[in-house]
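Side project, low priority. Logging it here so it doesn't get lost.
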Amino acid sequence: MERTYDVAIVGAGPVGLALAIELSRNGLATIVLDRRPPLTQDASARPQLLVARTGDLAHLAHLGVDIDDETLVSILATRTERDAASGRSITADVVPLRSTPERPRDLWELAAQTPRALIPIGRLQAALLARARTSGADVVYGCEVTRLRRHAREVSLVCASGVSIVAGLAIIATGAGRSSITSILRGLDAAPVAPRLIAGVLSVGGDRGRWVRAEVPSATGTPPLRCTLLQTASASGAGTALLVDPQLAATAGEEQLLGCFEQAARALGVAGAPYRVAPLVFATGVTTATRRFVAGDNRAPVVIAGDAAQTGHVFSGQTCFVNVALALGLAEQLARARRAITERAVSSPSLARALATYERQSEAGAALLALASRRHHQRHAPGAWALASVARA
């Protein structure tokens, strides 16, 4: 069967769902397609707690997410950076929010803010999914896009299940999965794969939210293990996430990586706790698209958004929330070109301006992530792994 929309979004992560909410609110008929099963059935969810700043919480509130829900948003009480080699430890209390936060003026103001809260990525996606459907967007899971073609007035997408979608504009927000891009947009720059990390989520919480970065001396004679521990308050039930950069050779086996994880868990006092998500090994890397849209050739446009446009592994979620901010900017620009999209005026000046503005905003976002990571790497060596692969690039 075939369905027709104004905008088709490939990828139901935070960026894709944020776009669906905003575009639907602005009167554009929107559908989101995701190859994964529904959230409640997805066994491959990432073991991640995102660290949100004040501006990130403001963006989520704008999208309709209840940031006062303690099962979703766990406000940080303390931040600690500890260098096990020197014994130096820096601890700071986090001032509680006293009112609804205001949205930042731009990305630079957002990046200057300090972390304020922990948010499980799975629960965030569930909250955004509910808002997207309330806003009128269609979200279809188990629909792997196998073909995406640009035509004179529309874009056509075909799923492996046989569902066919026609839209005035397509947005690819597939995260690190870029198979849909290669046949449309050439010239995607990719840095070499960085060393593998290992992360898990333990079913244990604390009396209050805390964020700890520490270096743990290695028992194998290799450089110290670099660890990030994100612990929510017990009342949230979200548990404690632990990310370990083992500083091992790329050829290290999974057993060695698991050994490093267990050593870090013992050093940070969470050894033996049951898992919410067992430790998973994953590679990191940095990629940036040379262009983030294809248009201007009298065919319907395709836009690249989120991690598919620029990404670097940031376990603390800064990349995710920067890309959500960019998604809100993209939605604002497309709303200004709403008539061109609904009337399929692919050569409209308003649509061209909207895409060019988004391109400039995305370039600023990529530069911001790179700059912030370099500064962090230079000034805070014990905690530099939080932006590990971006800093290396």
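Brief comment: The longest strand covers residues 74-83.
Revisit when time allows.
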